[in-house]
Write a structure and sequence with these properties.
The chain is mainly α and 164 residues long. The protein contains seven helices and no strands.
């Protein structure tokens, strides 16, 4: 890989893809942690989280593939422009659906969790938001259960806005 042959645009493409991959990994980690905690509490995760996780995983795979194709100088730029536009639409949908209830929520007003571990606090607050065992969690109610949940969802929202 000769860095001198890429030019300014090639180096910019590589830098942006690396930053996108890092952001997508953060979104995947945060969203999958929430889904794991919700499923371990015998509940169904909100569709917003499942959609966010799906879009982030597909976009991460796409970033890695296009980065490798660029390194091998076989990247079809027109196809990449079309695919980037489609991912832009998907990320706009994620940002709007995740952020709609978050815009009105002040995480600092929720307060800090008690001295118990965050997982215990999360599951106990989660249990109070369920109507019955195995039901789907209401996303708008769930994001306001703890300050940690609120801040992490705002991080997912911010990263999905910043990605494209």
């Amino acid at each position: 890989m000769a860095a001198g042959n890429d030019g300014a645009l090639g180096m910019t493409f590589k830098s942006v893809r690396i930053l996108q991959a890092i952001c997508f990994l953060c979104v995947i980690g945060l969203a999958s942690n929430f889904v794991s905690q919700i499923v371990s509490s015998n509940a169904t995760a909100p569709q917003v989280l499942i959609g966010t996780l799906s879009v982030a995983c597909i976009a991460e795979l796409y970033c890695v593939i296009t980065f490798i194709l660029h390194l091998d100088s076989i990247l079809p730029y027109f196809v990449v422009a079309v695919m980037d536009s489609l991912l832009l639409i998907a990320l706009i949908v994620v940002a709007v659906t995740v952020g709609e209830p978050l815009t009105y929520l002040n995480c600092q007003a929720i307060g800090t969790p008690s001295d118990a571990s965050n997982t215990y606090q999360f599951t106990s607050d989660l249990g109070s938001s369920l109507d019955q065992n195995g039901s789907t969690i209401d996303y708008s109610t769930w994001i306001g259960t703890t300050m940690t949940t609120c801040l992490e969802m705002k991080a997912i929202w911010g990263l999905s806005i910043a990605l494209w």
